[in-house]
Design goal:
379 residues; mainly alpha; two-stranded antiparallel sheet; 14 helices; 2 strands
Length: 379
């Protein structure tokens, strides 16, 4: 087995996310073409690097102690203050200067949303999976800065528990286009997050409106962000904050769509489903994109071992988990064009079914999985 080394030197590539900061500053100062540099950096440059550098299939020692991961963890710990200054500093700057036209400002804050979604929410995802209060609070703050705080509850209490079933909103059904998926998730996600917290409180003998319901914290944090944006930039600041948040959410849900498209867990009867295994998530080993997304593409292992920190996530072979043909930047672009997406992915879903569920062979047997009509799993 190819073994990777955990060291401060090997942590350096995961800090490439900081490259968006000078690009945003250049865009704000210079306008013109410069306002679009962040998407070019995050999407195209890393896709080119994936092509040049190839795959990283080396696996680190999963028993590595947290103390040896400091330089990996530190980038996630500092990201909230970086993103906070990035969002609100630019809101203040563009609303108190006159050299950028309306279109340039719109593209600049599209770039901010690409940063707060591609990087910020991914880092929030890593932080909210940890057990210490500092990391969880940083995760909450990052999510509030894109108005998607319920993601914490939905991800931890719903997605990980019910992935591969219809109770999980972000498991994309076979043949479900991204545009339908996106608006469906925006409707279903907040509701399922509220219901999950309500059920958790009920098990503790508490009402849904009890102060321990984290949604109250979510709303306070999000309202505070909106008020601050308005104080800094007035109505325009408010609108720009909403715009970057929308783009960030769009980036997140594109990623969610890619991660589980068409993959379902076997229904065992009576609302019971098999345990989550590596083959219920798409795996991708493209080296450069895993640097940018702190190994998020090793998603098969993340679902198999959700509490494993990102430097220790394992890669899986084709025999163990289904593989994406390209990294997330290319795959999310394809997802925006449903005919192209189905051409690339539907044959792979069929091959996955043949490999892992050869006994579910007939159209009648497979149809409930494709359409999401199997019984909902037990709560």
């Amino acid at each position: 087995m190819n073994i990777s080394t955990i060291s401060p030197k090997n942590a350096i590539p995961f800090w490439l996310s900081l490259g968006v900061v000078p690009l945003l500053i250049l865009g704000a100062k210079l306008g013109g073409f410069w306002v679009a540099l962040v998407p070019l950096y995050a999407w195209y440059m890393f896709s080119i690097l994936d092509r040049l550098l190839g795959m990283n299939t080396a696996n680190p020692d999963t028993e590595t102690p947290d103390g040896d991961l400091l330089w990996y963890r530190l980038i996630t710990l500092i990201w909230f203050p970086v993103q906070f200054v990035m969002i609100f500093g630019l809101i203040y700057y563009v609303t108190h200067s006159t050299h950028l036209n309306g279109f340039e400002i719109l593209v600049l804050f599209f770039s901010v949303g690409v940063s707060s979604g591609t990087i910020g929410i991914v880092y929030a995802h890593e932080l909210l999976h940890q057990r210490n209060r500092l990391e969880r609070w940083l995760g909450d703050l990052l999510l509030s800065s894109v108005l998607y705080s319920h993601f914490r509850t939905e991800h931890l209490l719903v997605h990980h528990k019910h992935v591969g079933t219809r109770r999980d909103a972000v498991t994309a059904l076979y043949n479900e286009g991204f545009h339908h998926f996106f608006w469906r998730v925006l409707r279903e996600g907040p509701v399922s997050a509220w219901e999950a917290e309500k059920a958790l409180l009920a098990r503790r003998g508490l009402p849904e409106l009890h102060p321990r319901n984290p949604h109250f914290r979510y709303w306070i944090l999000q309202l505070s962000m909106l008020i601050f944006a308005t104080l800094l930039g007035g109505a325009m600041g408010f609108a720009l904050f909403l715009w970057q948040a929308f783009i960030a959410i769009w980036q997140l849900e594109l990623t969610n769509y890619v991660e589980h498209y068409g993959l379902t867990r076997r229904h065992l009867g009576d609302g019971k489903y098999e345990h989550v295994k590596p083959h219920h998530s798409w795996n991708a080993a493209q080296m450069a994109t895993n640097w940018l997304l702190i190994n998020l593409q090793r998603h098969s292992d993340h679902h198999y071992k959700p509490d494993r920190r990102f430097p220790l996530l394992q890669n899986y072979s084709e025999e163990e988990a289904p593989q994406l043909p390209y990294g997330y930047p290319v795959m999310t672009f394809a997802a925006m064009v449903p005919p192209l997406w189905r051409r690339i992915m539907n044959p792979r879903v069929k091959a996955w079914r043949k490999q892992y569920y050869p006994d579910i062979a007939t159209f009648k047997e497979w149809e409930p999985y494709k359409k999401g009509t199997n019984p909902l799993p037990r709560l």
